[in-house]
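A reminder before we start the practical. When you read a complex entry, don't treat the lines as separate problems. The point of joint prediction is that each chain is placed relative to the others, so the output describes one connected object in space. Small molecules and nucleic acid strands, if listed, are placed in the same frame. In the example below there are two entries. Take a minute to note the order of the lines before looking further.
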Amino acid sequence: MRVIVPIKQILDPAGFTVHRRLERVFINQENYIINPNDKNALETALRLKDAHGAEVIALSLGESRVDDALREALAMGADQAFLLTGEAFAEADAAVAALILGQAIEKIGDYDLILTGQRALDTGASQIGPRLAEYLGLPQALGVRAVSGLDNGKLRAKRNWKEGYAEVEVGLPALLSIAPQANAPRYPHGARIMNAYREWEVTTWDLADLGLTEEELSPLIGLKRKAFPPERTLGELITGAPDEAARELAQLLKEIQ
Amino acid sequence: MDLEYWELLTGEAIEEEEEEVTYRDIWVVAEAEDGALTPTSLEMVGKAREMATALGAYVQAVLLGEDLEGLAQELIQRGADSVYLADDPRLAEYHLETYAQVLSDLFQEQKPEIILFGATELGQELTPRLAQRLGIGLLSDCLDLSIDEIERVLVAKHPVYGGEYFHVSNFLGAKPQIATVRPGAFRLPFADEYRTGEVEQVAVDLEGVEGKVKVLSVSVEEAQPEVPLPKARVIVAGGRGVGDAEGFALVEELAESLGGQAAGSRGAMDEGWIEEERLVGLGGATVKPDLYIACGIPGDVHHYFAMQESKFVVAINKDPNAPIFKIADVGIVGDPKEVIPPLLAELRAL
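Here is the predicted structure of the whole assembly.
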């Protein structure tokens, strides 16, 4: 069984602060992390590896720094990693990213399952999974919180649905997007982290390797500007002894409720 | 100038321009639940009406399902010019494959300029697939929409990094332009009982198309916590700064006395005081209660992302420099274990 997990590297929100009054984002430390929700997809794949001996392939799209995200995926337990990189990929929007990832997945081939995170923290979008499913002609289940069964080329999953969840059955190959609450992603062992850099390889594919041309990669969405919510500031600081402060707060809570 | 005359004058034939496809009108994909239109459907119709004026376009609503006849009039009263009903027993139950087929056939025939969906389960399932199928762009979870009248393109504001700030993005020309709209982002439009409009039937052709995902059962969430955190009106959350399990018990007591839900930060979960379903922050719930009381939570960025939409924030913390104070409406510098007991007594006395 082959499971492919596309992951996204994003700017770590802990490394920047948003100044609402100045309407600017200040980057204090330019750290990049794997989109947290994509790690849930990776963890789901690795549990299928533990239970059923699945082969787990991670792939990602972007600049050369994305290599780190893929090494982290290898350290967590992925068997292979592919970096899809090239200047033309830098401006990729969801449609372009789906095309590039879709081409790469077809090139890898012979897959049973594609797992993605449900939502990207940086853009808030949840497009890549279903766009990929459409591109590859696969059925999909979104917001999966548990894979509950796997036999005879059929997979059972619990997916979030309206006020609760639905138990669904889907034939493989299929695409699942994994909900953030599905699992707690594992931490890689130190030795595996070293191996990920020293021993194991990340295969790099560029535009030509994927049989794509630059004309195919023109974006459909552009960023006009950033906008900021109204500033949140400290309203009032109640000082004094705990008893007095508590009394004042109790009055206030009564007023607003 | 008359083209034939121009040809006579210059001796050159003007190439006839290729007939350009015209994309027109704003389409709203409405949803019904338990036999009634969802508020989001009507909110979208209202916003579409506003934008239609800027574009000189009509508002068309489309509804898929079975026995929909009775719902068309309300869409018209709220601002739709026509309502298209795909009324078919095979659409009674939602399946991605059938719904996507009917909608992509309809949109390929009708060529809308803009298509709006609610950012609901249905919208999140269908829109990326339709966008990919039609080779067009999509903006999800939009909080505001407008028309760039010079370029004649849709502009949308959507949250990034969990709403920490927003991107205002525009479509770059390919049509139709699809957006999903956050429920509650727009006001419910006035229902004008005298408004009239057309009701059309959509020809449903599902030859060879069937749902590929079998739904075995649907369950409503087992109530744990009783009110799911994202819907709670009052949340009292504790972090490491409450000291110990006893301190956290005070947090729970305060939550109970305010008729709210107890929750915790990552620190509280690491200490084993809460399970994951009561976590506010990365990997847990994003909440927006009317009242959020943070006890002993310094308030890192992940916590902030998850609770920043709370209407009124109270912070109780020993460290006066804790980041939580920067965003609290009311702050008390003090040990939660010393502040909560008298607070409980005061609340009982009131």
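Discuss with your neighbour: The longest strand of chain A covers residues 140-151. What might explain this?
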